[in-house]
Specification:
The complex is a heterodimer of chains A (about 300) and B (about 120). Chain A is of the alpha+beta class. Chain A has 9 helices and 16 strands. In chain A, helix 1 crosses helix 2. Chain B is built from 3 helices and 7 strands; from the N terminus they run ββββββαααβ. By secondary structure, chain B is α+β, with helices and mostly antiparallel strands. Chain B is about 35% helix and about 20% strand. The chains are: A alpha+beta (about 300), B alpha+beta (about 120).
Chain lengths: ~300, ~120
């Protein structure tokens, strides 16, 4: 069963009652909420995702709920609960769906230590994965959102999950978070891109989530082997050239973008080094998304 | 190499520990706990503490020399290994760089003094 199989009223009843056991890649999360914008967000963005049986196992139990104090009513706020504890400060009610998304990212990056987890988008063609690690504001998600509308499969927009022993990337296809000017850039870039509402004045500015492509969600069990690591950066007017980047420096930058390398110890170092060994590494400063799509299409054609 | 003088005017190498007459010899701290990888003459090393460092080509060679040695090495031993095949007028520069590298390795917890 997938989320789209549930009528809106049934979805709302499940979320406000026993909870929705939502599968995203290898992760099952039980979500409970009575907040209408979260119900709408799940109905839109997770329409093709599987629902697990209510008696089954869930990795995480989360809620988006009003606090028990006056902020339930006055300038209303909401809390993200993880196993009954709120790990973050409350946020304005208008930010409910982004808060769920940020909370789900936090759950995975904090607890899914069977994987080496990197702050990186990752996409795939012909079984070969392209990893796009970068700090916030670099244009990583914009590039990722553009490329998944030009033939690449979305594995993840935010969290790259690497199996340390096999070096396979495990898909975690969830909504793509876009910010500020990037929202309009992607709307113009692809008529197929489906967005939820723009939420303004978040800590990241204006945020909108883009629905993951149906094909990417349906192929959530298809892992991919990494082939390229590209360090993207948006710069107005930049030529958009792939410039080879030293592997040693790529290793150090990747380590900076790892959430849990310390938990994996020496084996984590070896896995990261093996990942670097098997990938071509580049820096990519781009100013035009269509040109960037052509550059990566040419890269994908390489042997 | 810079030498320090004590009040009695006796030149003392920074590598001669107080009260000892032989230079300190260095060995890897738990070599099995150290991980490293080399790409194009640059070495990345993971210290026992879990910290990760990018080493220069020379520092990478110092690391390999210590890893491959079955016994602790003095700075002069390490320098000799790295000076091999280099013109004599570069030897002082190599020795100075080796001294600095050993200092840094000790600070990072990669090496420790060992018995000869």
């Amino acid at each position: 069963m997938i989320v789209a199989d549930l009528p809106r009223a049934a979805l709302a009843a499940t979320l406000s009652g026993p909870g929705l056991r939502l599968r995203t890649g290898p992760v099952v999360t039980q979500i409970q909420t009575t907040v209408a914008s979260v119900v709408d967000g799940i109905a839109l963005h997770y329409a093709q995702h599987s629902i697990e049986h209510v008696d089954g196992f869930a990795d995480f139990h989360v809620q988006v709920r009003p606090p028990a104090n006056l902020r339930r009513w006055v300038a209303p706020q909401l809390l993200f609960d993880f196993d009954g504890m709120p790990p973050f400060r409350p946020l304005p009610r208008a930010q409910a769906f982004p808060m769920l998304e940020w909370g789900l990212n936090w759950c995975v990056s904090s607890y899914a230590h069977q994987y080496l987890i990197f702050h990186a988008a990752v996409i795939e063609q012909h079984g070969r994965a392209l990893i796009l690690p970068a700090p916030p504001g670099s244009g990583k998600s914009t590039l990722c959102a553009g490329l998944i509308h030009r033939g690449w499969r979305l594995l993840s927009d935010e969290l790259t999950l690497l199996e340390p022993l096999t070096l396979s990337i495990v898909p975690l296809a969830r909504p793509v978070s876009l910010k500020n000017a990037s929202i309009e850039v992607i709307r113009e870039f692809s008529a197929e891109a489906a967005f939820g509402p723009i939420v303004k004045d978040t800590i990241k500015g204006a945020v909108a989530h883009m629905k993951p492509p149906v094909d990417s969600v349906r192929r959530a069990n298809e892992k991919a082997l990494p082939r390229w690591i590209v360090w993207p950066r948006y710069e107005a007017g930049a030529q958009g050239l792939l410039v080879p980047w030293p592997k040693s420096r790529s290793f150090m930058r990747l380590a900076e973008n790892a959430f849990n390398a310390a938990e994996h110890g020496k084996a984590g170092f070896e896995a990261m080094a093996n990942l670097i060994d098997r990938c071509d590494c580049y820096e990519f400063v781009y100013g035009d998304l269509e040109h960037a799509a052509n550059v990566f299409a040419a890269l994908a054609r390489q042997e | 190499m810079a030498m320090a003088s004590d009040p009695a005017g006796i030149a003392r190498s920074p590598y001669v520990a107080s009260g000892l007459t032989t230079p300190v010899r260095w060995r890897m701290v738990a070599p099995h706990a150290i991980a490293w990888r080399e790409w194009n003459d640059e070495v990345v090393v993971r210290a026992q503490t879990g910290s990760v460092h990018l080493l220069s080509a020379l520092a990478g060679r110092v690391l390999r020399t210590l890893l491959e040695s079955p016994h602790p090495l003095s700075p002069a031993d390490v320098s000799a290994a790295l000076q091999m095949g280099k013109p004599e007028d570069e030897h002082d520069a190599v020795r100075s760089a080796v001294d600095q590298t050993l200092d840094e390795f000790q600070r990072l917890g990669i090496i420790e003094p060992g018995s000869p």
